[in-house]
């Protein structure tokens, strides 16, 4: 597989506002600032200024300029295991003509994080964040959807938290606005290099938390840089109380992961897939995970629990889709990968929400109303 250099404007000749704005943001100074924020978090601009050697005013105004276009630079993603929950990737195939009904049905229990349409063997891809004690009820709910002939088939995959791979800009020429897709280099690295990082099942246990903690986490999911003053007004608390709960959640590791809204190239010229990569062994899985941080087209990685399997979200230029599938095929051929499958996600259909704090009670914990869920399902 040969290395290919792609210049965005040359290939797509697209002059849409979104594409122009994304490219304008990717100069060398912004890349330094955003790459450093990805390491230390989105809230501490003083630390970003110190590590980059840039004046604080430069960092502050640069981020403000990006936010004026993108609105949100980063989201804080809570560690769901520490909230007594498990992340589930759910794939369902709707009966023809019932696709919109199935979209509504997947949202009824209200523990969904994302619901979107997809292409492939399934029609819907959903991320559900389910309290551990309700896993059986969730499976029964999806089985009921099948018994009602809403869906033909489904697959439930329990995973650890999804990790965003911040784009590696060493493959980007900001002057020429070119990305270098080094397919052969990435392939050889996975084949020959020992893993430098490992990905394992989460061993995190639930921590003590209150409903106010969940409300705080929900607003930081909307905007990881939202001020304590803004959050205080929304949750009817004092700014000092918000800071206290933020510090508590940060210290115990609930708020230690970030998703940045930085795209290496515009989504309008990209294909979004979710791959299930089933590896021959843990060593091969960790080789891939170690190299993934250099593959700027890898967006998110999550490990399927108790398996040598990764769910990998990719965001690749349309011209590189065939090469990406060839890349995975060659990993199978060389024995690093046992098999793989993929669905293409329709990003325009994506519905998302934050953690469902309204379903939590300080005295009784997480709630699941079987009767209400089935009643709503029967109304569809």
Q: Care to describe what's here?
A:
It is a single chain. The chain is an alpha+beta fold and 380 residues long. Among the domains are: 80-160 and 350-379, Alpha-Beta Plaits; 211-216 and 224-252, no CATH class. The chain has helices spanning 8-12, 17-25, 28-40, 45-52, 56-70, 99-105, 135-147, 183-192, 211-222, 228-235, 239-251, 282-292, 321-333, 370-379; strands spanning 4-7, 74-77, 85-94, 112-119, 124-131, 151-159, 163-164, 172-173, 178-181, 257-260, 270-279, 298-303, 309-317, 337-345, 351-352, 360-361, 365-366. The strands form 4 sheets. Strands 3, 4, 5, 6, 7, 11, 12, 13, 14 and 15 form a 10-stranded antiparallel sheet that branches. Strand 12 and strand 13 form a beta hairpin. Helix 10 (228-235) packs across helix 11. It starts with a strand and ends with a helix. Residues 5-20 have low confidence and may be disordered.
Superfamily (CATH H level) name of the domain at 80-160 and 350-379: Lrp/AsnC effector binding domain/regulation of amino acid metabolism (RAM) domain
Distance N to C terminus: 49 Å
CATH topology-level name of the domain at 80-160 and 350-379 = Alpha-Beta Plaits
| CATH level 1 class label of the domain at 80-160 and 350-379 | Alpha Beta
How confident is the prediction overall: mean pLDDT?
91
Give the tally of β-strands.
17
List low-pLDDT spans.
5-20
Largest sheet: 10 strands, antiparallel
Shape: globular
Helix count? Answer: 14
CATH architectural category of the domain at 80-160 and 350-379: 2-Layer Sandwich
Rg result:
21 Å
What is the structural class? alpha+beta
Q: What proportion of the residues form beta strands (DSSP E)?
A: 25-35%
**Helical amount:** 25-40%
